[in-house]
Amino acid sequence: MDITQLKNNFISTFGVVPTIFKSPGRINILGEHTDYNGGFVMPAAINKAVYVAVSLRNDEEVHLYAASYQEKIMATISTIKKTETNWANYILGVVDELLKRNYQISGFNLYIDGDVPLGAGLSSSAAVECATAYALANMNGLTIPQMELALIAQSAEHHFAGVKCGIMDQFASVFGKKNEAIMLDCRSMDYQYIPLNLEGYSLVLLNTNVKHSLADSAYNKRREQCTQGVAWVKAHHPSVNYLRDVTEEQLNEYVKPKDLDIYQKCLFVVQEIDRVRKAAESLKSGNLEELGKLMFTTHHGLSKNYEVSCKELDFLVEKVSALEYVLGARMMGGGFGGCTINIVKNEAIEQLIEELSKLYAEEFDRKLDAYVVETGDGAQSIN
Ligand code: GLA
C-alpha cells in the first residue's frame, strides 16, 4: 500500500491531515469451524491489510469513503444504525459496539483502502473492523485492551453484518505476529505463538474467485446445529458448554439417535478440534508431512461431513492431492468459496500455479489467483 498516496487521497477528500492505521487479513493453518465451538484454531496474520486514514471532527458526524467502491457514506454518532451499504456496516458496527460499552467517541472522517483480496476468505471484513476499532480507540484516547478490541470487532460482525462468526479472524487480525502462527484456545482464550518454520516449503493460497451466496446463511445454520448438539448432550451432562467439552461417545449416545445430520456436523467439529492439537505438535516438531496429511483430512471432513465446501474448492484440492511436492491442501475459512491453503515445495510453486491456473480455467472458465503467503503483524498505527 502506498501510504503517501493514501494520505494525499485523504487530504483531497477531507481537507485535513489524517492518522493512519492498519490491520491485517489472516490465513488459518488448521481448525475450521472450531472457534465458535470453544475449540482450537491456528491462524496467522498476513502482510496484506486494510488501511484506515482517520481524522476527528468537531461535530457528531461520521464521513466514510471507501476507495474500492469510490463511495461516500455519512452517519451521525447518536443515531448510528445498520445501512444498506455492506462495507460501511463493518465500520458503523464498531462505532455502535464502542457506544454500547459506554466509550465516548467524537465524529470522524475515515478513508478506507487496502490490499486484502475481497471475498477471498482472508477476512477482509475482520480487518476492516479491527482497523476501525484500533483507530477509534487510539484517536479518542481510549485505553482498550487488545482482547476487548477483538471482541468489539466480532460483535460488530454479529450485529451489523449478521454473521455469527467466532473469534478467530478478529483475534488474528489484532494479535498476529510476523513469522508466527497462533495456537488459540477459544474456550479459555489462552494462546501461544508457534514459529512458522516451513524449511524449503511455503504456504500458497489458491483463490477460486467465487463466493457462493449461501455462505452467510449456511454459516449461521451450522452454528445453530452445533448449539443444538451441545444442548442434547448438556441435558445429560450439565457441565458441557461447547462441542469442545463433548466426546465422540457422547455424540453417539445423545445426538445420533435424535438427528443424523446434526450428529455428522458435530462429529466433524469434535474430530477437527483434536486435529488442531496434532497439527500444533507437527508444526512445532517440523513434521510437515504429518501437518499436510491433517490438512487433507480436514478438507475431506469440511467437504463431505460439515458440507461447507464447493466444487471449485474440491477441484483444487483434488488436483494437488496426487502431487508429491504438495504436502497438504484444504479449503480455508468459512467455506463456499475463497481460497485453498497448500503447503508447497518452494521450487515447484511456479509450476503448480501455472498448471492449476490452466486446469481451473478449462474447468470453470474462471481465473485462478495465487498468493505465496507472507505473514505480518497485527493491528497497529503507521506514522
Ligand atoms: C469464518 C469465521 C470464523 C471461523 C471460520 C471457520 O472465517 O469468521 O470465526 O468460524 O469462518 O473456521
Overview of the molecule:
The protein is an alpha+beta fold and 383 residues long. It has two domains: 3-196 and 377-381, Ribosomal Protein S5, domain 2; 201-373, GHMP kinase, C-terminal domain (Alpha-Beta Plaits, 2-Layer Sandwich). 43% of the residues lie in helices and 23% in strands. It has eleven helices and 13 strands. Helix 2 crosses helix 3 (124-139) and helix 10 crosses helix 11 (349-364). The longest helix is centred in the C-terminal third of the chain and has 26 residues, at 260-285. The two termini are 14 Å apart. 49% of the residues are buried. The mean pLDDT is 97. The structure holds alpha-D-galactopyranose (GLA). Alpha-D-galactopyranose (GLA) is lined by residues 32-33, 35-36, 123, 165-166, 168-169, 333-334.
Task: Describe what is shown at a glance.
By secondary structure, the chain is an alpha+beta fold. It contains eleven helices and 13 strands. Bound molecules: alpha-D-galactopyranose (GLA).
What distance lies between the first and last C-alpha atoms, to the nearest angstrom? 14 Å
How does the overall form come out from the CA principal axes? globular
CATH topology of the largest domain: Ribosomal Protein S5, domain 2
> What is the name of the CATH class of the largest domain?
Alpha Beta
Q: Into which percentage range does the β-strand content fall? A: 15-25%
- The assigned CATH architecture of the largest domain is 2-Layer Sandwich
Strand order of the largest sheet: 5-4-6-3-1-13
SSE sequence, one letter per element: HEEEEEHEHHHEEEHHHHHEEHEE
The amount of helix comes to: 40-55%
Q: Count up the helices.
A: 11
Mean pLDDT, as a whole number? Answer: 97
**What small molecules accompany the polymer chains?**
alpha-D-galactopyranose
Structural class: alpha+beta
